[in-house]
Design brief:
heterotrimer, A alpha/beta (252), B alpha/beta (226), C alpha/beta (493), A: Rossmann fold, 2 domains, 4-stranded parallel β-sheet, 12% strand, B: alpha/beta, Rossmann fold, 6-stranded parallel β-sheet, 4-stranded mixed β-sheet, globular
Chain lengths: 252, 226, 493
């Protein structure tokens, strides 16, 4: 299958290794990746912060860029949530009937990365090797909007050498919330403080998730505290095997 | 009677109704297709509207729920009610019991405590009784609820409110399993005052610790007549 | 009593959410109390909801009953008025808080100079107690938690459990002092007994009671009060005159609709299958209860909320408080941070709307949009959706001159401009890599960011922008890609 990758603006800029890992996993499963360079951002930041009209051109852009894709892979639950929960509404509000029908036609072909692998490609063992103690953080979007359920867990269970440690209070928000972390840094920090207690209680080496937004927030605090735990997006774990290590950015 | 208000009583009313009509008119259009009734009937009611417990499952369930609330629960046959009531009241050391008019006189034994019927009692006269004995219009098993429908002549609300002890006699035939069934049974009484009692009074306002008996009867006993 | 601070949403001096939250976050006793209480209620709720195989069907019905009612609100209010009046009740209408208070005060005058009250968020909303006192009438709160709040000259911090922020020791100290009980025990039972005796005297000697209402039933003209302690029954039954205040959104169509509401409300509010007492009455019942009954129907901007098709769902609320218990933000701050009688998720959407979006503008942003509230709302109010919508109203509601110049708006416009062209986007990435250099510490991470971004680095480090973005990596790898869509140049701008 030819899979189009929507890397997301923040992964592209801050976490390119996620894209590298996603490409690796999908190619390992025998598929071809294309990356339309015209892509930029899904519009979530603008939309969620109250700048809804500004999101419309970004919706248009996304639809134009991926209109002819067979399947679109997005390694970010929050971006897929934006699309599934709001793109139709935005298109209707714009009054543009063509945009509405294009959004309706495209959305069923858009998948979050782990959804794509398990539901669309039908694979739960991607041939990964990652001998570490790992705990999984279910981001609010993956939990309550995409209803990923145990899809990421099923993938992690098949990773050779990986010891999966369950986390208590798994449905508690980590406190990132996009611009919330900037506009309400103290409350965001307090929420993170509590969440970290549960994360660190697992004594895992790695905390993973389907969203780098949460991981940036959690990982940033773990690093500040000089904790023994680091964060890794699930794509990185699934890409690891005996031949391939995701290139680090030297900032660890 | 209260005196007339100083402001114009109709202006707020017409203003509010006009605002509502304007808001809804803008959103739904001025002439809506379905009538109020028709629209009400489109409300989806896929929730359980009847029970599926077989007899005597609902008696069992009600008993469990009442016990959970800390109420005393007893069961007996119709012929034995008077004796059972006398027993319970003796064990609770009750000597003067106010009786609601929905209590069958056959349920009042001659020996045992003094039974009095409400005769326009003052609040302190009501309080001088050790407890109150009532029947029950319908009982809901799932929630352990006793529904009392009040009448001014013999079963007014104050009777079950002021005394510290309430003994309620529930005929098994009036027990239903679900809340919707309960409300169906109450439909005929919907213009009367109704009190739904689900356990003795309680509060959880201090550190979320459930404390029984703030106001209202602190002790509740039930006799289920099977 | 009359010197309560007015930090409610009507007061422009009310600090915004982040500022109000800060001192509360530092109050470890409060945070611990809130965490304990919300944890307990949440566990109970989960248990009793888990028992209900038809829970989702009940939520669907609850949502539709409320939506239907609002759609025909004028009809139902008029029907209620007609039926209640026919049963001997007096129905009053109040456009705003001041009018409601005025009506109540006039009706509440009596020789004892006192009224007994059942907890009512609506009376908090209108500031009734302050108004009564100003008129020389003492309101006596009879709910244990309200009594605690009143005796402590405090403000409620939770819709259902207003004294959530106080523990038993704090309550014991308060009662001992105000009820003159130096030997008062510390167990919750001792405290409840003290309250019982203190209040029984009030119930039996006060001729006027004031209540709110949980539900008004249009079909019968009846009122339903949902409670646990029995003080409601006392106030509704014993006095000579009863005055109830209810928002116009409290109405439900028919008696039968209670079968849905009384299943979802107790389970959601206190995690019980049914709360101890539910009282229903219609107008006046001669020989049983008050001889005079008045009900005040309050608008206070609810009709404004009705006008917004994206946000009118806010009025579906049945005041269960489940959203507060589920909210991870509320969990850290408690209710006082919201600066309003309505706190937590429902407060974040209701308060600014009741203030015509002129105040409480920080409230729609007081959320990480985690969705836990929507999950537990018994009438399916899509709170995250409404929060986002209200954020849009805050932004578009700025004065025209400010709209363009607001720093946040400038950033957003710049970002949109960058995102509208992928070459620009790549350039911005490269510029960012250069600009960040002075901020990167020896560890390789950024430990301090300037100005508004400094909030991030107060508790977190930030990984710097890496040397190569993903698109640069992909481009390097696929220089000879045959597909036109993969060439950087071939795209619309």
């Amino acid at each position: 299958m030819r899979i189009s990758l929507f890397i997301t603006c923040y992964n592209d800029t801050l976490f390119p290794e996620i894209g590298i890992a996603t490409v690796r996993v999908l190619e390992r499963l025998g598929h071809t990746i294309d990356f339309p360079y015209a892509q930029t951002c899904c519009g979530q930041m603008h939309y969620n912060t109250g700048y809804q009209p500004e999101a419309v051109p970004l919706v248009r852009r996304f639809v134009e860029v991926f209109r002819d894709s067979e399947v679109v892979c997005v390694p970010s639950s929050s971006c897929v949530t934006m699309m599934r929960e709001h793109y139709e509404k935005i298109a209707v509000a714009s009054g543009d009937k063509v945009l509405q029908s294009e959004v309706a036609a495209l959305l069923p072909r858009v998948y979050e990365f782990t959804e794509l692998v398990v539901h669309r490609l039908g694979v739960e063992d991607v041939g990964a090797v990652y001998p570490h103690r790992v705990t999984y953080h279910s981001s609010c979007h993956s939990l309550r909007n995409l209803h990923l359920g145990d899809v990421p867990i099923r993938l992690l269970r098949n990773v050779r050498g990986l010891k999966l440690i369950p986390m208590e209070a798994g449905d508690l928000c980590c406190g990132f919330g996009g611009t919330f972390s900037i506009k309400n840094p103290d409350v965001s920090g307090a929420m993170l403080e509590e969440k970290l207690q549960y994360i660190q209680k697992t004594q895992a080496e790695v905390c993973t998730a389907c969203d780098n937004s949460c991981l940036m927030h959690i990982g940033g605090a773990l690093h500040r505290q000089r904790a023994n735990m680091r964060t890794e997006h699930i794509a990185t774990i699934l890409a690891s095997d005996s031949e391939f290590r995701v290139p680090s950015n030297g900032a660890r | 009677m209260s005196d007339l208000p100083v402001h114009d009583p109709t202006s707020a009313r017409s203003e509010i109704l006009s605002r509502i009509r304007s808001a809804n008119g803008k959103i739904f259009g001025a002439d809506r297709e379905p009538t109020v009734d028709e629209s009400w009937h489109t409300i989806p009611r896929a929730y359980r509207r009847s029970g599926y417990l077989a007899d005597p499952g609902h008696v069992q369930l009600l008993t469990e729920r009442l016990v959970d609330y800390g109420a005393g629960v007893y069961q007996c046959q119709s012929v034995d009610v008077a004796a059972k009531v006398e027993d319970i009241l003796r064990s609770r050391s009750k000597q003067k019991i106010l009786v609601s008019s929905d209590v069958d006189s056959n349920w009042l034994s001659q020996d045992g405590p003094k039974f009095v019927y409400d005769d326009a009692f003052s609040y302190s006269e009501i309080e001088s009784c050790d407890g109150v004995l009532t029947g029950c219009t319908v009982a809901i098993a799932t929630t352990g609820t006793l529904a009392l429908c009040h009448t001014f002549d013999g079963s007014r609300r104050a009777l079950t409110l002021l005394p510290d002890y309430h003994l309620c006699i529930v005929r098994a035939s009036t027990i239903v399993e679900t809340v919707p069934e309960g409300f169906r049974a109450l439909e005929a009484h919907r213009l009367q005052p109704i009190t739904l009692i689900s356990g003795p009074s309680a509060t959880a306002d201090i550190e979320m610790t459930r404390i029984q008996g703030v106001h209202g009867p602190r002790v509740l006993d039930c006799v289920l007549v099977v | 009593m009359s010197t309560l601070p007015t930090h409610d949403f009507k007061d422009s001096r009310s600090p915004d959410f982040p500022a109000a939250a800060l001192p509360l976050l530092q109050d470890t006793q409060l945070r611990s109390n809130v965490r304990h209480a919300t944890g307990v209620i949440q566990a109970k709720r989960a248990h009793v909801v888990g028992e209900m195989p038809d829970w989702q069907a009940l939520r669907d019905a609850g949502q539709r009953i409320r939506a239907h009612t609002l759609e025909y609100l004028d009809f139902y209010l008029e029907q209620f008025e007609q039926r209640c009046s026919a049963a001997g009740g007096h129905v009053h209408w109040a456009l705003d808080a001041a009018e409601a208070n005025h009506i109540v005060i006039r009706l509440a005058q009596n020789s004892t100079g006192r009224v007994i009250k059942i907890k009512s968020m609506t009376t908090e909303e209108t500031g009734l107690n302050r108004a009564l006192e100003a008129a020389g009438i003492s309101p006596v709160e009879t709910d244990l938690a309200e009594l605690i709040v009143q005796l402590g000259h405090d403000k409620p911090s939770h819709i259902v459990v207003p004294a959530l922020h106080k523990n038993r020791h704090q309550v014991r100290e308060l009662f001992s002092r105000t009820m003159n009980l130096p030997d008062l025990g510390e167990r919750p039972e001792d405290l409840a007994e003290a309250a019982r005796l203190h209040l029984r005297r009030q119930f039996l000697s006060t001729p006027v009671a004031i209540s709110g209402a949980n539900f008004l039933i249009a079909e019968t003209g009846g009122v339903c009060i949902v409670e646990s302690e029995g003080n409601g029954r006392m106030c509704l039954t014993l006095p000579r005159k009863l005055i109830s205040i209810a928002g116009i959104d409290k109405i439900i169509p028919r008696f039968q609709d209670l079968e849905v509401m009384l299943q979802v409300l107790p389970r959601s509010a206190t995690g019980e299958r049914m709360n101890p007492y539910n009282s229903l009455w219609t107008g006046v019942h001669p020989g049983d209860g008050p001889e005079e009954f008045h009900i005040v129907l309050l608008d206070n901007r609810r009709t404004e909320v009705l006008r917004d098709p994206e946000a009118r769902e806010t009025l579906h609320c049945i005041r269960c408080g489940a959203c507060q218990n589920a909210c991870p933000v509320y969990r850290q701050t408690g209710g006082h941070a919201y600066g309003s009688v309505y706190a937590g998720p429902i407060g974040a959407i209701l308060t600014p709307q009741l203030a015509m979006m002129e105040r409480g503008q920080s409230l729609p942003y007081a959320s990480s949009l985690c969705g836990a509230c929507y999950e537990v709302c018994p009438v399916k109010i899509n709170i995250p959706e409404i929060l986002i919508h209200l954020r849009g109203r805050v932004v578009s509601g700025r004065p025209k001159a400010l709209r363009a110049l607001h720093p946040e708006a400038v950033v957003m416009r710049t970002m949109q401009w960058i995102f509208s062209n992928s070459t620009r986007f790549s350039l911005a990435q490269r510029s960012g890599r250069i600009a960040q250099r002075p901020w990167i510490r020896r560890s390789g991470w950024i430990e301090k960011l300037p100005s508004v971004l400094g909030g991030w680095t107060r508790t977190r480090d930030l990984r710097p922008l890496p040397a190569q973005s993903f698109r640069e990596w992909f481009h390097a790898r696929h220089r000879e890609s045959p597909l036109t869509s993969n060439r950087p140049e071939a795209h619309h701008e």
